[in-house]
Amino acid sequence: MRVLVTGGAGYIGSHTLLELMAQGHVVCVLDNYANATPTVLNRVRALSNGQITDFVGDVRDAKKLDEVMAAFAPEAVIHFAGLKAVGESAQKPLYYYDVNITGTLTLLHAMERAGCKRIIFSSSATVYGEPQYLPYDEAHPTNPMSVYGRTKLMAEQILTDWVAAHADRTAVLLRYFNPVGAHPSADLGEDPRDIPNNLMPFIAQVAIGKRDVLEVFGDDYDTPDGTGLRDYIHVVDLARAHVAALGYAAVHNGARPFNIGTGQNYSVRDMVAAFEIASGRNIPTKQSPRRAGDVAAMQADASRANAELGWHATHGLDDMAASTWAWQSKNRNGYDTD
Ligand SMILES: NC(=O)c1ccc[n+]([C@@H]2O[C@H](COP(=O)([O-])OP(=O)(O)OC[C@H]3O[C@@H](n4cnc5c(N)ncnc54)[C@H](O)[C@@H]3O)[C@@H](O)[C@H]2O)c1
Q: Is residue 287 assigned to a domain?
C-alpha cells in the first residue's frame, strides 16, 4: 500500500518505516521536526536502501497536506505526529489540543478531499485512567487523568464519528502501552531532547554517565517491590503492529481500538536490574515521593490484537534493555552524534 506516515521521523515512526518497507509498502513522511531531526530519515534510508518521499511541514497546515496528498496519493495514513509529554500537557493545554486535535482534524479534512479512507492512529493506554480492573481490555471505561490523555481520547472519538458517517472508512486505534528499546542495528532509538520523560531513556542516560542518578517516584505502592508496574513493549514489536493494522484496514471498515502491549508488567526495580545486566554498569537510584497522576500498576490485555490483527509481541525484557543500551552506547548524544 502507499502509506503516508505523519511524524515518521520520530521514535516510533522511524522504526515503523523500516517494517513497512520490509513488507513492500511504499512510504512518504510528513514531519515538522518539532521533536526529531532529518538525520533520522537518512539513517532509515541507509538501513533499508528504501525509497522514502519526505515533506517538511506541519500536520495543521491544510495547504501542505493537500500538496502531499496530490504528490503521493496515499491509500492509508499512519498518524504519529503529535505531542506526548504528560507533564508538559498540563502546562500547555492549548498547545496540546491544537497539535493533537486540530492536527488530526486538519489531516482528516485533507484525507476527505483526497479520497483517502484508512487511518491508523497512535493512541495510548493513558485513555483508560485509574484501573477499575487489570489487565485493561478495550472495554475498560475511559477516563484519562491528563490533558495529553484527553487529547488522545478526543481524537479517537473524532475518528470514530468520522467512520460512523461513511460506510467505507476505517480507523484503527492503536492504544500503545510503554514503548521502549531500539532497532537491532543500534542506529535508531529514542532520543529525548530534554530531560527524558520516560523511565528507560532516563536509565540509559544514567548508565552512560550523562545523568548522575535515577529518581524512583514512589516505593510504597501495593506492588511486590513497592515501585510502579508497567507493560513495556519493544518498539520493533510496536512498529510491526502498525503493519498488521494496515493489513486489517485493507479488509475491514469501521473504527476499532486495539491494545498494543505484551500483557506482562515490570517494576521500576525490574527495569533497573535488567539494564544493569545489559550494560554491566551500576545505576544509582534515589527514592522520591509518588508523582501525582501515576497509577500503581497497569498492563494490557492484548488478546484482541493477537486474534484480530494476527500480531504478537516477540521481544522480552532482556531485548528491551540490551537494544536500548546498544543504541545509547553507540550514540552517546543521540542523533547529534552524527
Ligand atoms: N512514546 C510513547 O511513550 C507513546 C505512548 C503512547 C502513544 N504515543 C503516541 O505515538 C506517537 C508517536 O510517538 P513517539 O514516541 O514516536 O514521539 P516522537 O516525538 O518521537 O514522534 C512524533 C513525531 O511527530 C513530529 N511532529 C510533532 N508535531 C508535529 C506537527 N504539528 N506536524 C508534523 N509533525 C509533527 C515530531 O517532530 C516527531 O518526529 C505520538 O502521537 C504519541 O502521542 C507515544
A: no
H or E element that contains 212: none
Structural domain includes residue 51: yes
pTM listed for this prediction: 0.98
The verdict on whether 148 is a catalytic residue reads: yes
Active-site residue, selected from the candidate residues 148, 176, 221, 232:
148
Residue 145 is part of a domain; what is its CATH number? 3.40.50.720
Range of the domain at 97: 2-180+232-261
Amino acid found at 223 = T
Q: Is residue 15 part of a domain?
A: yes
Mutate which of 12, 44, 107 for ligand 1 pocket (most atoms within 8 A of beta carbon): 12
Distance CA 158, CA 71 (A): 26
Average of per-residue pLDDT values in the chain:
96
Asked if the structure places residue 26 within a domain, the reply is yes
Mutation probe of ligand 1 site: the residue of 5, 11, 43 with most atoms within 8 A of C-beta? 11
DSSP 84-140: --HHHHHH-HHHHHIIIIIHHHHHHHHHHHHT--EEEEEEEGGGT-S-SSSSB-TTS
Nearest residue (CA) to ligand 1, atom 18: 10
What are the pLDDT digits (tens) for 307-325? 999 999 999 999 999 999 9
d(CA 103, CA 58): 8
Distances (CA, A) of 231 to 9, 156, 179, 318, 332: 24, 21, 9, 14, 26
